[in-house]
Amino acid sequence: MRAMTVAATTGAFTIVPRHIDLSATFSNVPVSLAVGKRGNVTLRITNQGTVAAVGVLQLILSASPNGVLESSSTEILRLSRRINIRPDGSLAMRLSRLQFPQSPGSYFVIAELDPNRMFHDINQANNAVMSTTAVVVS
Prior knowledge:
Elements: E1 22-28, E2 32-33, E3 38-47, E4 53-64, E5 74-85, E6 89-99, E7 105-113, E8 128-130, E9 135-137
Parallel strand pairs: 2-9
Antiparallel strand pairs: 1-3, 3-6, 4-5, 4-7, 7-8, 7-9
């Protein structure tokens, strides 16, 4: 028979169910682009959950003159990419040759992660992120 040691705690602890929590930040966005030129952005995707995020991630990038996804926004990328991000891990995605709007103006880049909820993300509120600065198209 094996001996077993058991220790008690006087403090409280929380048991959290297994979950995925994806979020993103832009780490590289162009400051300006000439009309008709393509640009690159880097998006860092983080899994703040307790289990690995493994599967095909859908991602939509849009350019918005006012930072809001609405009729004035222009979709500049839609892709599906296989990911495997461990808990508290992240992945940098370099997205190349993006076609920004042809009209001169300032555009914020907005990323939507997992719009169809394939990962059953526990916190959908952090699945959309906007660039902190606008891209000036002139």
